[in-house]
Amino acid sequence: MNSEVKVSQKEMSALDAYLNKVYKIIILVPPIAALMASVTFTIFKIVGWYEVVNPVALVIFDLSDITYLIIAIYFYRTGFDAQGILRHDKLKAGKIFISAVIIIQWNFISYMVPAREWWAFAFFFIALAIFFFDMKMITCVTGGVVISTIISWILNGENLLMPDSKYFMPDFILRIICIVLTTTTVITLTYFGGKYLVEELEKYVNYDTLTHLLNRRSMDNYLNAARVEAEKGAATFCLLLMDIDDFKKVNDTYGHDCGDEVLKFVAGIISNGVRKDDNVFRWGGEEILVLLNTGEGKAVSIAEKIRREVEGFVLNYRDEVKISVTLTIGLATYGSGKSIQEMMDEADAKLYYGKRHGKNQVVKDLSSDFEVQS
What we know:
Elements: H1 14-26, H2 29-47, H3 55-78, H4 88-112, H5 122-127, H6 135-155, H7 157-160, H8 165-206, H9 219-231, E1 238-244, H10 247-254, H11 256-273, E2 279-284, E3 287-292, H12 296-312, E4 315-317, E5 321-323, E6 327-333, H13 340-356, E7 362-363
Parallel strand pairs: 6-7
Antiparallel strand pairs: 1-3, 1-6, 2-3, 4-5
Helix pairs in contact: 2-3, 3-4, 4-6, 6-8, 10-11, 11-12
């Protein structure tokens, strides 16, 4: 039975809350808008206002929009885990679904009700995707709508462009300019929205403000993802639980400001000592957890290198005092069927063993007579 630690609803981050609200709204708004369009066009066709609409196309249009809403309700009801947090797989699938709805709906309207004015609504369709601040999504939607619009001009030019040759070229150029401006505006909004809202918010939520390491609440996704890959046999991984030796003595002797500098100093050494695909977390206090996407042999080598570098460096605090510290490290390697909690307990037990037996060492095996004290 898996015993991975989950984030409770009370611990939901601001980013989680934002995506939860956006997902609930955006997953339903386009399909509801599409269904409203179906109702409107159907009524207009019945009363004779849209003679040009093909009845067969209208029926397909109506059935498609009903299908969109049914699928949207499914995404709405299944998009969250037991703690109320948005599931990343559902978020990804929902983005693809909404992108497809927007592009298909735009094409339906462009061809079913050809009129010169329809191109002006392109921004509305594209804008539905902005709220996710996802560059890939907005680029695909924008590209799909723009390409569809240009193709519709070519195929339905007699309806979508000014018929008078005197105005054809200026009108065509004007529409091209409007499309370019619309596209530029949407992509710019998405880029800066993603960069300065979502990315910064995610950084604030997922990173420790003192050490700039990933924080404890963000680690579950990384650890569980590593375990899933390991269970598939695609990779293995190790956990290093590190603790700064005698850190309390540093705080008591030189003050907490000095302790913070030491912690940042050590965190920087650890971050520089691992590879780009590894992850470093501030576990709590002076403890740091490292997820290494490698086997035990390489993990021991990395841990020893970090331990030696920390041992060999001296921090010159405010040019007043020189401080050196050491690390004790407990190592746990993934094995078939191991849960994350079991690995954490193992790493913690080895760390405790190292603390009791000299400190400043990497412990990958426990003595047979060692018992963890509660």
